[in-house]
Specification:
The complex is a heterodimer.
Chain A lengths: L1 H15 L1 H18 L7 E2 L2 E2 H19 L1 H11 L1 H6 L5 H29 L6 H28 L5 H16 L9 H7 L3 H9 L10 H24 L5
Antiparallel strand pairs in A: 1-2
Helix pairs in contact in A: 1-6, 2-3, 2-6, 3-6, 3-7, 3-8, 3-10, 4-7, 6-7, 7-10, 7-11, 8-10
Chain B lengths: L8 E12 L2 E12 L3 E5 L6 H9 L6 E6 L4 H6 L3 E4 L11 H9 L8 H8 L14 H14 L4 E5 L7 H16 L3 E6 L2 H7 L2 E6 L2 E7 H8 L2 E6 L5 H5 L4 E7 L2 E6 L2 H11 L4 E7 L2 H9 L4 H5 L1
Parallel strand pairs in B: 3-7, 3-8, 5-6, 6-7
Antiparallel strand pairs in B: 1-2, 1-4, 8-9, 10-12, 10-13, 11-12
Helix pairs in contact in B: 3-5, 4-5
The chains are: A mainly alpha, B alpha/beta.
Chain lengths: ~240, ~300
């Protein structure tokens, strides 16, 4: 099974890049503890602030984690390894699925750490709510996993960091990861078209809602449907000498 | 649809051209390489060697012309694991040890060689446990060579495989390569070292300015390289007439000045003088390797690179 060896080494390489891993896991946690404790007893959007902000940071942190493999792609491109892989029988399917798995592999512990942080500040949910929330977060991440691959194949290794950071921050801010600033008007209409909005909404399932309305599923699905062919195109075109 | 499984032609490239903007990197290359041959693409930097290799691998789409590998498209040959090698200026992937990298590449191929055997053969076993980022230039090349070898492809294309390796390292590299070619496999390598091409290739394809300027057995290219040149001033006689003179290998005209590269300068000069009494300003120059290469490649700047 060629795919399993490739996946195993992709995971190994991801885990060995300690800097990226540590920053990805720690950043949302640091932000959470910087903001949430002092607002521990206030309410936001009808729920306790620690829960509210946990949802936002979960969306932000998971997005950040999901696009991380883009950095590895850019590094492999600048070393020339991407091209050298192209003259082997490595299948594109194996390549892409390994990227998706490593994306989620970093995203999931990011979520778990934030959940734990939330519970230290009194966030309590029942098992179904945790599971539902996690399920929707993971689904809502799909567009960002693909976006990471696209950026990785388009950006140079020097332009990657600002591109990834900028993308994640813009999506987080507009989607409500740092607080709801767009509660009406045109901006609200626009914001509801972003996958990050639904990522944040997934976190708020704890409020007692039943998950996404059809609109949320549709938005996430459309983003995936549009981005996947772009990722394939970016990968295919990416064979020229750096 | 018929897909030939066995073809004795390893590479058939026809009419390849490729431009990048206003730069014509490859301007009409036709190349047929039989299975089992070992061929050097010799030429200075910028001659179009890498672009040609990229087109053979299917990484770069030619503007014109076509490539087939064992009767298949380059993409199909790559998918089937029949072709492998080393590209120019690549380095091993980071966050892996050398052995892991070779194992990884082995997993892609349908009939790969045992990893330990390849590590031993390439000398990469001495640093198999090291991270790829901790390797010297020569070690990195050897690790990549091990990765190229482990797939056991029928055709190996190496783009300046010994760049950055010292003389001793180069010798070891080619020793390991010999194990590969002895099993009847095809190897094509780009180099700008004449001695390397001479020592390790049966056939030398001399590339300059995006074209093939000479193609033949290493001995023949060397014989040409040991030739003399006649220069003279002679208007009106076309190049192909001059080229057909006995003892003349190639002829070139720049304005009224002509240059004849000769395999037998004595005969050529005798015939030349009797045939064209109008010729003036003779100069017979002899035979350094470098001068001959300059004549063949038509490129003075190449001389440094080819030394």
């Amino acid at each position: 099974m060629s795919g399993t060896v490739h996946l195993r080494y992709e995971i190994l390489r991801t885990l060995r890049n300690r800097t990226i891993l540590a920053v990805t896991l720690a950043l949302p946690l640091v932000l959470y503890y910087a903001v949430a404790p002092s607002n521990r007893h206030s309410l936001a959007d009808g729920i306790s602030f620690p829960l509210y902000f946990m949802a936002g940071m979960a969306a932000y942190g998971a997005m950040f984690a999901a696009v991380t493999p883009g950095a590895h792609i850019a590094a492999d491109r600048s070393s020339g390894w991407t091209r050298e892989m192209r003259i082997t029988p490595l299948r594109p399917g194996t390549y892409f699925s390994a990227k998706v798995v490593t994306s989620y592999l970093i995203a999931i512990p990011t979520l778990v750490l934030l959940y734990l942080a939330g519970t230290t500040l009194g966030v309590r949910l029942d098992a179904t709510q945790w599971l539902k929330m996690t399920g929707l977060l993971l689904l809502g991440l799909a567009p960002f996993v693909v976006l990471g691959i696209i950026i990785g194949h388009l950006a140079s290794s020097t332009s990657l960091t600002p591109l990834v950071g900028g993308t994640v921050v813009i999506f987080s801010l507009l989607g409500g990861g740092f607080g709801d600033y767009f509660t009406g008007g045109v901006m609200q209409t626009i914001v509801r078209l972003l996958p990050s909005y639904w990522l944040v909404q997934a976190g708020k399932i704890a409020r007692g809602g039943g998950g996404w309305p059809a609109e949320g599923w549709l938005v996430v699905a459309i983003w995936v449907i549009v981005l996947v062919p772009l990722a394939v195109l970016a990968y295919r075109r990416d064979t020229s000498r750096g | 649809m018929t897909v030939p499984q066995q073809s004795s032609i390893a590479i058939k490239a026809t009419g390849l051209t490729k431009s990048y903007g206003s730069i014509q990197a490859v301007r009409g290359i036709d190349l047929t390489i039989s299975a089992g041959e070992s061929v050097a693409l010799l030429g200075p930097n910028g001659a179009g060697k890498s672009t040609t290799i990229d087109m053979v691998f299917g990484l770069t789409r030619p503007d014109q012309g076509s490539v087939s590998i064992f009767g298949q498209s380059p993409a199909a040959a790559v998918r089937a694991g029949r072709i492998g090698g080393m590209l120019q200026t690549a380095s091993p992937p980071d966050y892996l040890k050398v052995r892991e990298m070779v194992k990884l590449v082995a997993s892609y191929y349908p009939k790969s060689r045992p990893v330990d055997e390849v590590l031993r053969l390439t000398g990469a076993d001495q640093f198999a446990g090291q991270r790829t980022t901790k390797l010297s230039g020569g070690q990195a090349q050897r690790a990549r060579f091990a990765a190229a070898l482990v797939g056991n492809p029928d055709l190996m294309l190496l783009d300046e495989p010994t760049a950055g390796i010292d003389v001793e390292g180069r010798r070891e590299f080619w020793q390991a390569m010999r194990h590969f070619t002895e099993s009847g496999r095809t190897i094509v390598f780009a180099t700008h070292y004449l001695d390397e091409a001479d020592a390790y290739a049966d056939r030398i394809v001399l590339v300059a300015r995006g074209q093939i300027v000479a193609d033949g057995p290493a001995t023949e290219i060397k014989a040409r390289a040991g030739s003399r040149t006649i220069r003279a001033t002679l208007p009106d006689v076309p190049e192909d007439v001059l080229r057909s003179l006995p003892g003349v290998v190639s002829a070139q005209r720049r304005g009224n000045a002509i240059t004849l590269v000769c395999s037998d300068a004595d005969t050529a000069l005798n015939v030349f003088l009797t045939t064209f009494p109008a010729a003036q300003d003779f100069e017979v120059r002899g035979g350094s390797l470098e001068e001959a290469l300059v004549e063949l490649t038509g490129d003075k700047a190449a001389i440094g690179a080819l030394r």
